[in-house]
Every structure is written in structure tokens, then in C-alpha cells.
Amino acid sequence: MIVCLGCARPPAPQPTDAVRIVFVHQPLWGEPAPFNALLDTFRREHPHIELVTQLLPNDSDVSHQYFLTSLEGQGADFDVLVADVVWVPEFARAGWISELSADFPQTELAEDFLPAAISAVTWEGKTWAVPWYLDVGLLYYRTDLVPHAPRTWGELETFTRAAMKKDPALQGFLWQGRQYEGLVCNVYETLWGFGGKSLENGHLALDTPEAAKALHTLRRFVERGLSPPSVTSAAEEESRRPFQDGRAVFMRNWPYAFGEAQKEGSLVRGKVGLSFLPTASGEPGFGTLGGWQLAINARTPPERRAAAVELIRALTSSEANVKFARAYGRNPARRSAYAALKDTSFAQLEPMLERARPRPVTPYYGMISDILQSEFSAAISGIRSPEEALQQAQRQVDRVMGAQ
Amino acid sequence: MLLVAPAVLLLAGVALYPILATVWLSLHRSILVFHEHRFIGLENWASLLGDARFWASLRTTLYFVAVAVSLELLLGLLFALLLHASFRGRGLLRAAVLVPWAIPTVVAARLWSWLFNADHGLLPALLPGHDVNWLGAPGYALHAAIVVDVWKTTPFVALILLAGLQAIPPELSRAAQLDGAGPLRILGSITLPLLRPAIAVAAVFRGLDAMRVFDAVYALTGGGPANTTETLSIYAYKTLMRSGDFGYGSTIAVATFLCVAVLAGLYLKLVMPNAGGQEA
């Protein structure tokens, strides 16, 4: 596959002893101006650094593939890279990214970054990347159709039933059940709500009562017609569109859907509430952490590495977080940024991000998620019972993790 | 000999070397994340034989090939006969038929995924049993993928068959007509036998292509639900690129290559010699 590596802008004239660093990232969409302004400020403040940016395709799988081949090929043609939350332990274990504990000690991160964000960049107690912006799984509800945000799964079901009784054309609860990474996020959120854990002492326990309850709960919504049959093949957009057209009561989705729902022309504008996902006990639920982190190529030589650390510091500062939120709707990873944004819709996300949890933080994740996707898919589409699917998943996961 | 040397070298470089390198890789345990790269002989191949997921994906692929290619040949033949007849606006229709073939597969698959959408897609509303989720129900999703492939590649088959039809001298059917043969008799006794080489070419091209199908299915279902639409190529891709298991992924890729080679050999043996004989 061909990776498009277009230089975003021509390098400005530099002093001859300038250190040249290359930053690869996915397109941010929207106006390029605010991002370029941020980079230009960095260039002005660091005249000895020649910063070059390169674009990756906007597809997480393809970017992963690019990093896999180029980092394993020991290429040093880029210095700063953007990594998905689930890649950090994998890249760290493989020795592809440089340890950052000396530059960004855990204690320093803990002062301002949200806990889930820190756990996603930490592996074996060390820092391997710095959170850039975050995502979290949320419950969207129609303020005109339900009395308040449901706290338990039971309440969500009751509210859905009541709203659908009044208007049988409504679709109930929309979520993402297609065989892909989003399904793993949906299932883990439900599993955490039943008291399950991602990892215990390095062991990935799947064949548990909590996981079975989670899959039964999701499957039940489909069986009882409280989620449409299409959820078993839906990704984010297949959920957002009908919700935005006013055809559903609830939706699980990432924060981007809120901005879309509040746009002019949206049929649910002003009628959308955001909340924690439900749990079994009624305590506020846990959304899956998503988002992107900045890391340094392990092959980057020392003089370029120092410049790369400077760039990461600048891009992950509280001010940069705020600028990114305002310009691109990206959710900050720092508490101080939320304080600065307290009059905006970002502020309402902070409590959910405080309770966000990462998927199993393990270098095996790339291998495991493939197994989870297919077994979770089998359970929610009724091909196997949840118990059977979980046993099969456990057997395969144990084989992968025990293989080492 | 010297004159063909550049061509042979080029082929060796772009075709032979990658194949041999993949075969060599399939004899290793090679997992990038763990920096493991050691020779393990035929261990991967032994695992492959006992790998239920491999056999399931092989079955899925063969079913896909059989159903999709049969439909494509049948519909392609119909279209070719239609486009071969002379009528007003034939040129326009010929161009229009090619549109699906011109659309990039991934774009076509995304388009169809909205058409198949269980809640507001056009197709479930038109088809019987309209509460079925075509893309999320086991047994249906693979057929949805077949529909996309048929829609996309029938024009290609029609085009090859149309070229075949145009190579048949019109005097033959005219002579048969004079002898009192009806249109069906002409089709069965003259057109189809003479079209056999073209049909064989279309079948070989489509069959080999369909054995390696990836993009149409991957963009439509991602291999789901529960791997029921996972073809050999999707399994190889996921193992190679998502899991980073290059040794085993290469084993699946080589196995796919072998299946394609066997299929190609069968085709050539069964269809091509006859066709060649008739031409002579």
C-alpha cells in the first residue's frame, strides 16, 4: 500500500547548523491555519530547529501498517510520530519508540494529565509517549424523549421501551456492533459497568461472569427489538446518522457526534444530552479511552531527539490543548485545559474523561483485538452464546499471550 | 535467448523473488513486536492444517468464487448478447454498462453498504423479509458481498464476451437462419460453442480474481459478523498487518497462492485445450 507523504509546507530558510526533525501525523481536517500557526510559533521560538511535517493516511489500520514496516525496517526518516492509544505498549515492547521517562516523568504527567491518558502512555511503569488529544465513549440521549440520563442498564431499557411505545417508529438504543475495533470498545464499556477488569496481574480474563453479563446485555437489546437489527453491522456513522435524524432514543458514540448533532440542520439540535454510560450498580459508567499520543522514533539520533522532545512539549502544552479544542474539536488531555475551556461544551466531557479506561494495555493488543472482534461479533449477532464465545476467545487469547 | 533475457529478469525480479521470499518467510516464526525471527521449518504449515479459521475462510472463499463467478458469467452473457444486437443508442448503453467497473471497489462497497443498511437502506425495503440485517446476519452478509462483486464485475465479463461475439462471422448465423434454425438453436449450436474461448478467458480472469477477493468484502463487512465473510486474503491481511505475525501470515498468503494456482491449472486443463483445438 502506498503511503501519501506530502510535505505540508516548504521549509523556511534556516541557519546552516539547524537540526532537521520530521513529524508524521494524520490529517486533522478543518482549517489548516490554526495548526500551522501553532507550528510556526514553534519554529519562531526554536530557530535552531528545522521542522518538517508529513501526512499519513486518515485510516488507523493503514497508519499502523506504515509504522510497522517502517519502524521494523529501522528507518530514521521521521522523528516524532502520532500513535493510537492501543499501539503504545506494542511499539514500546518492540523497541521502536524511545522511552520518555527522563523527559516526561510520571510524576510530572500526574500533575495535570487525566489518569486514563497517563495509563495509556505508560508501560511497565515508564513513560513512552505523551497524550495529545483524547476520545471517550459516551451515552447520548434525547432530552425530549426521556426524563433524565439513565444510570443503570435496566433504566436504559425501561426508558427505551417507554419511548418506543409512544412512538413505535423510534429505533431505541444505537451502538456499534460491526466486527471492528469499535465493537471491542462497546463491549469493554459494558463489561466495566458490570465490575469487570481489562487486565488482572497481566492476565486477560475474558471467560468471566462480568463479561458474559455484558454480552448478554448487548445481545438482549437486539433480541428484544430495543436496538435495531442493523447494530450488528454498524460503525460510528451508521449510528450517528439515524440518531441525528431524530430516529433513536439513545446512542453510544464518541464526542465528535455531539458537535455534529448541534450543527445547523440537525433534526435533534438542542435536544441531545450527554452522559456517562450506564452500569449495573448505577454509579457513573466508564467510557473507553481513545485518542492520539506523541512519541519519538527510537532510531532518532540524540541531537534530533532533544529537538523532538521540544516539539512534543510545545504540542502537548495546556495552551496547545486549548487551541486544538477550539480549532478542531479535539478533547484536551490536561485538566488545566478544561479549566480554561469551562464555558464551552468541552467542560461537560471532563467528568467522563476522568472515568475513561483504556483497553487492555499490553504489547499483545494488536494480536488480541482480532480475536476479541470476531468472538464478540459472534455473541452479539447470535452465532454463539456469550459463554461459548468467551470461552473460545479465552482459549485463543491464552495461546497468543502464553506463546511468548 | 539473449533477447528474452530482460523480460525474464524483470519477471524474476517482480514476480518470482517476492513469491520465493514469502515462501521462505512462511518457514519462520516471525513476529515483529517480539523481535522473533527464527527458522521453524514446516511448523506454520502444520498449524495451518489444524487451523479451523483457515478452513472456514477457504470454504467462504470457494463459495464466493463459485456463486459470484457463475452469476457473473450468466449475466455477462445476457448483457453481451443484448449489446451485440443492433439498436438505437447502443453506443450509449455500452458505455453506461461499464460504469460499475469504473467505480473504485472500495467506493462501490461503501455505496452498497448504505443500500444494504437495515434501517434505511433501499434494498431491505424492497426485498422480502425486510427486517433482516444483510450485513450483520450470518448467512446473509456473504451474499451481500457476492451481490457487490457481481454488480461490479459483470460489465467486465460482458465486455470480454462481447468481443468474442464480434469475432464470430455473422454469415454463420445467417446461414443457419436460412436453414430454418430458430434463435435458441443458433445460440446453442453456433454462438455458444464459438464463444467458448471467450467464456473460458472470462472465467479464468474472474475466478482467479475472486479467489483473492479482499477490498469488496473488507470494505463492506470487515470480515464480520464473526468472521463469516472472512476470505483467505482478509485472514492473511489481518494476520500480517494487524497481528504482525509475518511468518504465519505468509503461510496463509502462500496457501492462497497455491489454491489459486491449483484452480488455474484445473481451468487450463479442462477448458483451454478444447478451446484451442476448436480454433485450429
Give an overview in words.
Chain A has 404 residues and is α/β, with parallel strands linked by helices. Chain A has two domains: 183 residues, D-Maltodextrin-Binding Protein, domain 2 (3-Layer(aba) Sandwich); 189 residues, Periplasmic binding protein-like II (D-Maltodextrin-Binding Protein, domain 2, 3-Layer(aba) Sandwich), CATH 3.40.190. In chain A, 43% of the residues lie in helices and 13% in strands. Chain A has 16 helices and eleven strands. A five-stranded mixed sheet of chain A has the order 2-1-3-11-6. In chain A, strands 8-9-7-10 form a four-stranded mixed sheet. In chain A, a hairpin with a 2-residue loop joins strand 4 and strand 5. In chain A, helix 7 packs across helix 8, helix 7 crosses helix 15 and helix 15 runs antiparallel to helix 16. The radius of gyration of chain A is 22 Å and the shape is globular. By secondary structure, chain B is mainly alpha-helical. Chain B has one domain: MetI-like fold, CATH 1.10.3720.10. Chain B has 14 helices and two strands. In chain B, strands 1-2 form a two-stranded antiparallel sheet. Chain B starts with a helix and ends with a helix. The C terminus of chain B is likely disordered.
List the SSEs and their pairings.
The complex is a heterodimer of chains A (404) and B (280).
Chain A: E1 19-25, H1 33-45, E2 49-55, H2 60-72, E3 80-84, H3 88-93, H4 106-112, H5 115-121, E4 122-123, E5 126-127, E6 130-136, E7 138-142, H6 153-166, E8 173-174, H7 181-193, H8 209-223, H9 236-244, E9 250-253, H10 256-261, E10 272-275, E11 289-296, H11 302-315, H12 318-328, H13 335-340, H14 350-354, H15 365-380, H16 386-402
Parallel strand pairs in A: 1-2, 1-3, 8-9
Antiparallel strand pairs in A: 3-11, 4-5, 6-11, 7-9, 7-10
Helix pairs in contact in A: 7-8, 7-15, 15-16
Chain B: H1 5-25, E1 28-31, E2 36-39, H2 43-49, H3 52-84, H4 90-97, H5 99-102, H6 105-115, H7 122-126, H8 141-166, H9 170-178, H10 183-211, H11 215-221, H12 232-242, H13 246-270, H14 272-279
Antiparallel strand pairs in B: 1-2
Helix pairs in contact in B: 1-13, 3-8, 3-10, 6-11, 8-10, 8-11, 9-10, 10-13, 10-14, 12-13
